[in-house]
UniProtKB/TrEMBL annotation:
Protein name per Swiss-Prot or TrEMBL: ERAP1-like C-terminal domain-containing protein
Molecular functions per Gene Ontology: metalloaminopeptidase activity; peptide binding; zinc ion binding
Family of this protein: Belongs to the peptidase M1 family.
The organism of origin for this protein: Bracon brevicornis
Residue ranges occupied by any ERAP1-like C-terminal domain in the UniProt entry: 2-190
């Protein structure tokens, strides 16, 4: 499990020595129907989608739609949220509203996958707000899924504006058993804000040095 986590992080960090072979495995799977080793399938799918085009995304979507293997569906649901294309991320979120596309038990996985993607974080939040009545009706107040979803969508926010917006949105909403997750997520946002305040100068200096080195 640790090895897989390291490989996933390497893909997210765009480390070429991991991304390149993962993309090659994805291409062999997509174009030549070669099997991917089960223990790295999730990493390969993410690399193929994250660094691919709409074609790769749609291919994986069709595989998701047609496979009857639950574990494969789950891996693909996570990977489909890894694209850097905002349009595809938005379409993916909208697909999660249609029970012919995404089963009710998988909606949380779709929205959470998009929320974990830096390019999709605010798309997921806007979707969550816009379709709150449908989401609430789907999960109900006693659902663990609602708690998980709340945490996934908002706990990585790191600005005062984010904190105020989340607080205002939930001010008059009863989230039932999700209340604890909401409170914990708001505390996490506060910690994120404090961390950024304490480290902003160092981060700025590092970025300036990095950009200087990158441009020669």
């Amino acid at each position: 499990l640790l090895r897989i986590a390291v490989l996933q992080s390497a893909v997210e960090l765009q480390l070429d020595e991991v991304v390149k072979p993962a993309k090659n495995l994805f291409e062999d799977w997509m174009l030549r129907k070669k099997k991917i080793p089960p223990n790295i399938r999730d990493v390969v799918y993410v690399a193929g989608i994250r660094f691919g085009t709409e074609k790769e995304w749609r291919y994986c979507w069709e595989i998701y739609k047609n496979t009857i293997i639950p574990s494969e569906k789950r891996i693909l649901l996570q990977a489909l949220g890894a694209t850097t294309d905002p349009w595809l991320l938005q379409r993916y979120l909208l697909k999660s509203l249609d029970r012919d596309n995404v089963k009710s038990q998988d909606v949380e996985a779709v929205i959470s996958a998009v929320a974990r993607n830096p390019e999709g974080q605010y798309l997921a939040w806007r979707h969550f707000k816009a379709y709150w009545p449908q989401i609430h009706a789907l999960f109900g107040n006693g659902s663990l899924g609602l708690s998980t979803l709340i945490s996934s969508v908002i706990s990585d926010f790191f600005t005062e504006y984010d904190y105020r917006e989340v607080t205002e949105f939930f001010k008059n909403i009863d989230v039932g058993s999700g209340q604890r997750a909401l409170e914990q997520s708001l505390e996490t946002i506060k910690l994120n804000i404090k961390w950024v305040e304490n480290n902003a100068e160092d981060i700025d200096d590092w970025l300036i040095d990095y950009l200087k080195d990158s441009t020669g």
